[in-house]
What we know:
Number of helices: 3
Shape: elongated
Helix content: 10-25%
Distance between the termini: 54 Å
Number of strands: 25
Amino acid sequence: MSRFIEKRSAFRKALLVSTIVCSTLGFSSAKAEESAGAEFSQAGAELSKEIAALQQQIIELNKKVSTMETVQKQSEETTRQTAIAAARQEVATTGVKRADAPATNTKAWPTGYMSVPGTSSAIKIGGFARGDVVYESGPQLGDSIGVASLPLKGINAAASKQGNTTLNARASRLNFASITETGKGDLTTFIEIDFFGSNASSTYSPRIRHAYGEFLGVLAGQTTTVFGDLDSLGTNVDINGINGGTLRQPQVRYTMTPMQDVKLMVALERPVTDYTTRDGTLNNASNMFGSTGISNGATNNSATGAGVGTSALPDLTTQLRWSGSAGHIALRGVVRQLAVKNIADASSGTGAVTPPALPGSFSSTNNFSARATAWGIGIGGKFITVGKSGFFGQINGGDGIGRYIYELDGQAAFFDPTQRKFQTQRAYNGILGYEHYWQDNIRTNLMVSYTRVEVSPFSPGMADSTVAPLNSTTRISNQFKKVMANIIYSPVANMDVGFEVGYFKRETIDHKNGQTVRTQLALTYKF
């Protein structure tokens, strides 16, 4: 509009000059009429008519310009008033807004994320509701597979129970994720719960599975251990699956990408000294920290050595992973410190210790502490054969690896204060399977697993032990075997129907065993 007005002003000036010139010409033509005749007089008259017509056009043009200027001013005023009204409404509904907060959120977020107006963040809410029906022909494993606690024939009365059916909804999950754009990179968070907390009369307590944040490759919070490789375990219907469970724990992790398709992760994770005592009790995080999160190891004292695990250093874990169209392969490692402190209470002198190894009254000879360095390594992957079908598997092993092979939680070492022995135990396991896609929405998994721990020779009844073999209902396991097969059908994108059959066997160092066949149907409704 301003450019048009400038042109109009220039045009007016040109017209004025033309008018003056033309008027002069008109005056000259009048003189010429007297001297030159009728021809020049006629030309002057025609020019005067043209000038008059041009002046009329200018008048009309001025009217149009004035009208357009009025409309523009009205439009600008309307826009200003609308902006003022919107600002007043925002202040009235949301309060004072940060000066550095963006007015709009128009970023193209990943699928499923919803932008949060007035911020640089997006959120996503997800999860699923699930119902399980489980039938076990032999002893019960419970709502999920836990082969390490399988009742033993001839030892545990529960082993005689046959034909058990149970239903539960504990595997249902709820999760929340967020992404915040910072200008230096995305800041992400993720929190997820299920309902495998305490179980009382079908009233399930929530349990945190994941709760962490990540920015510029640094992750802090609770999630799956870096030593884990879930993508090499296939797909199970049971929540614990062929691996017997998943180790999730607090950690600080750094992830880098040294080259395309290669990822390196290094983490410091919560330390737990897991070990077996002379009476066969498995000591793990629940014994070490209890319900308060305070280490018991500095003050406890017992004849069996229960509940005295401690650790001064975090576990160091690492994983190097390559991923591509043909699948993936991951190399994993863990180094950790195991320690125990069996110390009598100086003030009471009542340490529950049997003479002569550790007298009941307090003295410097009653103190017994030990530590050991433990390690574990693993390799696993998935290898595509046809379409999305392929083989998967992993091999893990180490000295004192214990709970990093999930079923061996409590068997990283053997501890007996009466023999003054604290010894790491070697263990290994292997998983192999094949996942076949019949169609995009129908798949089958076949898998086997074998786990073995080389129990310390100082364990009860073993060659170097001074302790007689156990004759109670608690025995020390040394191997586990599993075979599982399933079919999973997805009638729609957000629903899975899974049917699975599994055979499970537990064996002990004194050749006792427990076994069962488990059949499970699960219906999962995702959102």
